[in-house]
Known about the structure:
The complex is a heterodimer. By secondary structure, chain A is mostly helical. Chain A has one domain (about 25-130, about 140-265). Chain A is built from eight helices and four strands, in the order αββαααβααααβ. In chain A, the strands form two sheets. Chain A has a two-stranded antiparallel sheet with strand order 1-2. A two-stranded antiparallel ribbon of chain A has the order 3-4. In chain A, a hairpin with a 4-residue loop joins strand 1 and strand 2. The radius of gyration of chain A is 24 Å and the shape is globular. Chain B is α+β, with helices and mostly antiparallel strands. Helices cover about 35% and strands about 15% of the residues of chain B. Chain B has ten helices and seven strands. Chain B has helices at about 30-40, 105-115, 130-140, 150-155, 155-160, 170-180, 190-195, 205-210, 220-235, 235-245; strands spanning about 5-15, 15-25, 60-65, 70, 85-90, 95-100, 100. In chain B, the strands form two sheets. Chain B has a five-stranded mixed sheet with strand order 2-1-5-3-4. In chain B, strands 6-7 form a two-stranded antiparallel ribbon. Classes of the chains: A mainly alpha, B alpha+beta. Chains A and B meet through helix 3, helix 4 and helix 6 of A and strand 1, strand 6, helix 5, helix 8 and helix 9 of B. One FE2/S2 (inorganic) cluster binds next to helix 3, helix 4 and helix 6 of chain A.
Amino acid sequence: MTQAVDAPAKSRAQISERTLRKDPWRRAPAVTATLLTIWVAYATVHVFLGRWYWVPQYHYLTPFYSPCISGSCAAGSSSLGQWFGKVPSIVPYAVVSLPFVLGFRLTCYYYRKAYYRAFWRAPAACAVREPHASYSGETRFPLIMQNLHRFFFYVVILISVLNTYDVVQAFRGPNGSFGFGLGTLIMGANVVLLWAYTASCHSCRHITGGRLKHFSKHPVRYRIWTLVSKLNAKHMQLAWTTLGTLMLTDLYILLVASGTISDLRFVN
Amino acid sequence: MGEKVTLKIWRGDAGQGELTDYRVEVNEGEVILDVLHRLQATQAGDLAVRWNCKAGKCGSCSMEINGRPRLACMTRMSTFDPAETITLTPMRTFPVIRDLVTDVSFNYAKAREIPSFTPDPSVKLGEFRMQQIDVNRSQEFRKCIECFLCQDTCHVIRDHPENERAFAGPRFLMRIAELEMHPADTADRREIAQDDFGLGYCNITKCCTEVCPESIKITDNALIPMKERVAGRKYDPLVWLGAKIGRRPRHDTPAVPGGKKS
Ligand code: SF4
Ligand code: SF4
Ligand code: FES
Ligand code: FES
C-alpha cells in the first residue's frame, strides 16, 4: 500500500535576511555614488559660474562652455556666434549643447547601471534585496524615455565635431600662428577619448551593424561592427576615463584662465 | 584525513525551514558538491541536492553559496577561508521542493511561450546555407546550460514575484535575441519582446551576466542589443514618422498564446 503524499506547497524559502552575502558588496555602489556626486557637484559649479572658461591668448575653451553662444561670452570664444544678448550665467553659456551631453550620459546603458545600483539601489548589488515595494523598470514614464538614447547619440556626434574644432583652435599661439602647450595636449587627449567613448556606445554598435541579420551580406558594416564591439567591451572604462579627462581639461583651463597657474608652452 | 568545515544549510520544504549547522570533512581539490555528498553519506542521508554531471555542464546544482548564486560543482573549497562558515541556501526566486532543491518549472513555462524558430517556408529542408559570421552571435547564447542562476539573481522577479507574469527573465529574453539574430529566422519578435516578455523591466544592472557560469555576456550581447532593436521598432522618432506617413511596411509580429496581442 502506498501512502498518499501531499504535493509540496509552492513557496519560496522564507529567508528574512536581505542578503546572505559576506563579501564587501557595499563597496562598489558606494565608490560609484561618491565619484559621481563629486563630478556632478564640480561640473554644476563651473557650468553656472560664468568665468574662467576661456584662455584668450592660447584659444583654450573648456568643453563645458562649447559652443559659447551666450551674449555674455568672452570675445573670441564663440565659435558658432552669439545667439542672444547678455544674460546672467544662470543660463549656461553652452545652453544648446549641455542638455544633450547630459541626456546622452544619463541615458547611457553603462551610467544607467551605475546610478540604478548606486543611487536607486535597484539592486545595490546582485542578490541583495532592493528597498522598493514595487518595480516597473523601464516600462513606464519617465524611465521609458531611456529608449531615446540613440537620439542623443546622433546629437552628441555633432558636439564631438565641435569639440574637435576647439582642439584645432588650441593649436594657435598668442599671435595667431601655430603653437601649442600642455593645455592643447590635455584638450586633445580628452577629445580622442570622447570620440572613443561615443563610438563605443551601444546605440552606435546597433546602428553600425548590430541591427543586421546577415553580416555576410554587409562585409564593410560587419568590420565596423567588429571594431565598435571591441571598443564597446571597454565602454565602462571609457565612461569613467572621459569623466576624468573632462574634469581635468576643465580644471586645467580654469586654473590657467584664472591666473592660478600658467600654461606650460612647448611651441609659441 | 582532511580538515573540517562548518556548513550552514537551509533544511526544510514548502517554505518552512531553517539553517542547520554541520561539521564536514574536506579534502584537497574538492568542491562544494563533494562536501554535500560526504554530508549525505555520513550525517544527513535525507538531504536533498540536485546534481548530475559534476562538471558544470548540466546546470542542475544551482544554489546560493554565501548568498551568491553559483553552481555547487564549480565552487572550489579552496576559495574559502578554512575557518569560515559556508552558508548554503536554495535559489531564492523559485519555490522550494526540499532543502536545496527548487522547482524551476517557471522557466520551462516561459520557454514554451516564445514563438519558435520560423524559417522561410519556401526554402526546402537541406537547402539552408549560412555562414559562420552570421551565426556567431546566436552561438554564444547556445552555450547556456539552463542552470537558471541568471533567472534566480535577476531582481525583477527575485525581489518582486508579482512581475513573474510580465517578465520572462534574462535567459528567455536572450532566447528571443538568439532567434532575432538568427540568419534563417523570419519572424519579428521585437514587439512581443517588449509587450509580452517584459524586456522593459530589465534595467541592465547586469547581475545575470555576473552570475552566468558560462560567462555569456547576457546583458551586453543579448539584452541591450534587443533593447536597441525594440527602440528601432517602437521608439525611434525617425521610424515612427516613417510609419505614420506609411513609407515603411509594418513587419509581422507573431502572437504569444495568452499574450497581449492574442
Ligand atoms: S541585466 Fe536585466 S535581466 Fe539581467 S539581471 Fe539585471 S535586470 Fe535582470
Ligand atoms: S544564461 Fe548563463 S546563468 Fe542563465 S541559465 Fe544560461 S548558463 Fe545559466
Ligand atoms: S553612451 Fe553609453 S551606451 Fe551609448
Ligand atoms: S552538477 Fe552539473 S552543473 Fe553542477
